[in-house]
Amino acid sequence: LATGSSPLGLYKKMIESYQKDQVSYKNTEVLNLDEYIGLSEQDPNKYSHFLHHHLLDHADFSKDNIDLIMAKQGNVQEECQRYHNLLISNPVDIQILGLGSNCHIGFNEPGTNFDSQTHIVKLKEDTRKNNARFFSSLDQVPKEAITVGIRDIMSAQHILLVASGKQKAEAVKRMLEEDICTDCPASILRVHKSVTIILDEEAASLLKKERGELC
Ligand code: GLP
């Protein structure tokens, strides 16, 4: 699962489907993408809280099937190794993704090696600024995070990326039209065998016309 505002509509629909008895998540195993480093366990900005609040607590997910990264305080290096092992023994069927306005996926910032696995990252200032809207001030936004790597993301059977709004238009254009390069981490998704990208009109507004019409 991904955090951030992008997948919120999807999570709402998932909850609705459960409430209408159309789907059950009781056998769904849940891992997630990333987490800030340095927040207290109670901090509502922790991504583990976000996922419980916006999805997991509102449907029949079994708590034995949920293993969120850094949900508990602990040694971050050890957590990288633990999550790496977990991803190897539990290959991901579907990876949900948002898109950072600098084209990051998870917290894999521009410059991240495409071969990366779960690791610690130093957040870029533009990422901290974008995410400051969830905190009382920019100073409160952690400077580091833990994220599954690009190689981990690319190992999923299917990838579903959601992006909306004008503020994502440039990143969407770069992801789909720029040369595939580490400056634009999301561009690597173009070589994955099964990716679905869902955009609203604003997020798709800078795409070349022919692709825009397809959207
Ligand atoms: C955050 C998260 C990403 C998320 C992205 C976009 O920094 N680490 O997983 O996809 O930025 O966030 P939003 O959907 O709120 O725009």
Write structural notes for this entry.
By secondary structure, the chain is of the alpha/beta class. It contains 7 helices and 6 strands; from the N terminus they run αβααββαβαβαβα. It has helices at residues 8-19, 47-54, 76-89, 125-131, 150-154, 169-177, 209-214, and strands at 34-36, 94-97, 119-122, 144-147, 158-163, 195-199. The strands form 2 sheets. The chain has a 3-stranded antiparallel sheet, covered by helices on one side. The protein is globular. It starts with 7 loop residues before the first helix and ends with a helix. 2-amino-2-deoxy-6-O-phosphono-alpha-D-glucopyranose is lined by residues 2-6, 33-34, 98, 100, 106-107, 127, 131. The site of 2-amino-2-deoxy-6-O-phosphono-alpha-D-glucopyranose (GLP) has 13 residues, from helix 4.
List keywords for this structure.
single chain, 215 residues, alpha/beta, three-stranded antiparallel beta sheet, three-stranded parallel beta sheet, 7 helices, 12% strand, binds 2-amino-2-deoxy-6-O-phosphono-alpha-D-glucopyranose
Shape: globular
Task: State the major sheet.
Answer: 3 strands, antiparallel
Radius of gyration: 17 Å
Beta-strand content bin = 5-15%
What is the terminal separation in angstroms? 24 Å
How much helicity do the residues have?
25-40%
Show unreliable segments. Answer: none
Order of helices and strands: HEHHEEHEHEHEH
Spatial order of the strands forming the largest sheet: 1-4-3
